[in-house]
Amino acid sequence: MLINKIALIAPNRDFALQASDLFNEWGEKIHVAVASGEDVIAIAQQLSERGIDALICYAAFAETIKTTVNIPTVCLCPDIFDILQSLQNITVWLAKTGRLADAVLGLTGEAIHGDIAAVADILGCKTKILSGSRETAPAEVTAVVIATARIADNREVEPEYTAAGIPCFSVTIGHETVSKSVRQAQELLRAGHVDRVRLEQFKAIMEFTGEGIVAVDSQRQIVYLNHTAEKLLKKSKDQMVGCLAVTVFPDINLDDTLRYGQTRTVSLTDGGEQGFTCRIVPMLISGQAVGAVITIVEVSLLKERDKAGKALVESGYTANYTFDDYITVNAFMQEMLEAAKSYACVDSTILIHGDTGTGKEIIAQSIHNYSQRSRSPFVAVNCAALPESLLESELFGYECGAFTGARKNGKKGLFEQADKGTIFLDEIGEISPGTQSRLLRVLQQREIMRIGGDRVIAVDVSIIAATHRDLTELMEKGLFRRDLYHRLNILQLRLLPLADRPEDIPLLSHSISKKYAAKLLKQPLHFNAGAMGVLTRYPWPGNVRELEGVIERLMILKKDAVVTAEDVKKVLDRSCDCRGNGVRVVPQGTLAEIEHAVIMQVLKETGSHEQTAKILGISTTTIWRKLRSFQNEIIDFKMQ
Ligand SMILES: Nc1ncnc2c1ncn2[C@@H]1O[C@H](COP(=O)(O)OP(=O)(O)OP(=O)(O)O)[C@@H](O)[C@H]1O
């Protein structure tokens, strides 16, 4: 294998030596080979097999190589500056010797091209292409110009003479021209590398997908197919690549796709029970079809997918958000999104840390939808919302007769329901020590045991946990198991509070306003500079959820669409003061007692956890969590 990735094919030994000297002088590691006209293809092929990725090739060979060997090739011949310099020297000499008037230049040599005649014309000389060698130049020729396969700077001024005494000058390939060709070849190498990486990525995706994929070029020839296509069509790549598509798919007419760029769907049978659905999609460049891609799916698989999709929707265990829904221009958060995308490609447990309303659930749903598990259930569990015993039976299920009130046939737990999908354990910091140890077993072994059961059930789930609490602090206080923490904290995502990323507020405000405008059939709000100033300075303890609440209130209260600083202040005041007329009387006591009293008061006023959460600018989860810590009161409290 050659280390050098670029090679030069020289037309003779002298040329090769001249090029090698230059490459050595420049410290360029370029392999140099010599070819005659006949063996040039064989030599180029050998170089390709030995790992050469780009060729620099003397002009006379370039076309042959470009059409026969699949290596990017740079053509090396005297360029316009070589010609200009050389002809300028010649005309100076002709003027000096009194021969310039009506001079005719006879052009010969293998590297002759149209540019020489054009430049001579500009310099005031007529030209004549000589059919033979310089020695046969006719008498009307004032001087002969020979374009040779030679590397030299075009500075020669003194000519050689033919036997008939006609002066002869050379146009050669200048050093700068060689250097330029090296740079071009290096550029091709770089571009080729990028293309190869893309091609490999593309192939990996193609091989990974469950559908059969066949690519056809504009001549209707099969140029690529993936492994699934081989399996479905029961033929190997070798048997199909290079064949006309019609020989493999006699029932598919590619005309509509290749001529008019239309996408078509066709059902095929294979003569037996199995059937395929093929979709034919054009490959378009600047609106022109340059080929087509045929995707093949077994009909039975489609039916299964339909059924599975329907069952998933009916179960309600679906994730609606994708990363596109998560609005942020903050650099840290954008990095977090990139990390989340890469985490979605693996099955390791993810721990999301962020204050209430920062979007932990959106991120969890987006990870699920970005992952291979997106067609399977996404089960979200709020660990703070259920008392310990109920949480355990919900998570792990139970066998028949496990406890009084249990269903006769037992019940699948959420881990089982999430099989092949993702389980999102929100507010993981709130779970009791008993549930923590059961959870540890699932994390370690991906197995569960139903309550009251003795069977071990394997579950294939990806686990995403979230918390607003500092789990290390809980660990130090002995409230959270250290081993569980380490099991959970394999991949971590941290969401910044809204107050730490005020640059997100304008974008979020506009997007939320658009969302509510569509819902309430109103105009989106326009926030003037004063309004935006108040919004960006506010501390947002309830984060984006609180911002949503404020914008919803503005939307309902405002008659026109323009929001001022005063409008925002009023609504923010209301959200702080809580309810209608009310100046809330702040109770006396510890912070916990004040919180408790305020939550209980608003709960009584509204009769709804959701409303209470909205008014207080916190999540329902936080309400549940706080209520759980005032357990005695919960028992007494009866919702109206
Ligand atoms: N960056 C964001 N872009 C758009 N919407 C967002 C963003 N962050 C949060 N939201 C919205 O804020 C609300 C709260 O989000 P989410 O429920 O994901 O937060 P959370 O951190 O899980 O809250 P909690 O811990 O209180 O359950 C949702 O309505 C969500 O759509």
UniProtKB/TrEMBL annotation:
Keywords: ATP-binding, Nucleotide-binding, Transcription, Transcription regulation
Domain Sigma-54 factor interaction: 326-556
InterPro entries per record: AAA+_ATPase (IPR003593), AAA_lid_NorR (IPR058031), Homeodomain-like_sf (IPR009057), HTH_Fis (IPR002197), P-loop_NTPase (IPR027417), PAS (IPR000014), PAS-like_dom_sf (IPR035965), PAS_fold (IPR013767)
Family matches, as SUPFAM superfamilies: Homeodomain-like (SSF46689), P-loop containing nucleoside triphosphate hydrolases (SSF52540), PrpR receptor domain-like (SSF159800), PYP-like sensor domain (PAS domain) (SSF55785)
Keyword Nucleotide-binding attached: yes
Domain (PAS): residue spans on this chain: 198-242
UniProt KW Transcription keyword: yes
Gene3D superfamilies, per the entry: 1.10.8.60, 3.40.50.2300, Homeodomain-like, P-loop containing nucleotide triphosphate hydrolases, PAS domain, PrpR receptor domain-like
Full protein name: Transcriptional regulatory protein ZraR
UniProt organism field: Sporomusa sphaeroides DSM 2875
